[in-house]
Design a protein that fits this description.
Elements: H1 2-20, H2 27-43, H3 51-65, H4 77-108
């Protein structure tokens, strides 16, 4: 049981570290982009996710908010929370990974990010000029250090 909780906490910590690293889109931008991700996936425009993966994410949200539980907290307090923690950690990691891939796709394949994005460093209304960059077009690639 303690191993499940440690794994869940490690998964959440990894998702948060990924979501909050410099150059990564902020959580607000991720939440705003999620409906676009769902729409693009359902239309078939975006192939980085699947309907099954989106269904599993929706099922995880419903499981977390549902009063019906596989392991009820009322009877097995600590064990009852462990299954929820595992689902929450999977959902957090899936959300971060899916939005990370989608925003990268939106930026590179389409050429611009959605105009309502919050514009985290490396993401937003388009590539930002970088005075010291030797990369093509004078832009900084998200996740890369230009020296």
């Amino acid at each position: 049981m303690a191993v499940n909780r440690l794994g869940a906490l490690r998964s959440i910590a990894t998702a948060l570290r990924t979501a909050l690293r410099p150059g990564s889109p902020g959580l607000g931008e991720r939440f705003v982009s999620f409906p676009r991700l769902v729409s693009a996936t359902l239309r078939g425009d975006y192939h980085g996710s699947t309907r099954g993966r989106l269904f599993m994410m929706a099922a995880a949200v419903l499981y977390i908010v549902s009063p019906i539980d596989l392991v009820p907290e009322a009877f097995l307090s600590v064990l009852g929370l462990a299954d929820d923690a595992v689902v929450v950690s999977w959902l957090a990691a899936a959300f971060v990974n899916e939005t990370e891939s989608y925003l990268r796709w939106e930026r590179t394949v389409r050429g611009t990010a959605h105009p309502t994005g919050s514009g985290g460093a490396g993401y937003g209304a388009g590539p930002a000029p970088d005075a010291g960059s030797t990369s093509p077009g004078g832009t900084t690639v998200p996740g890369h250090v230009v020296r």
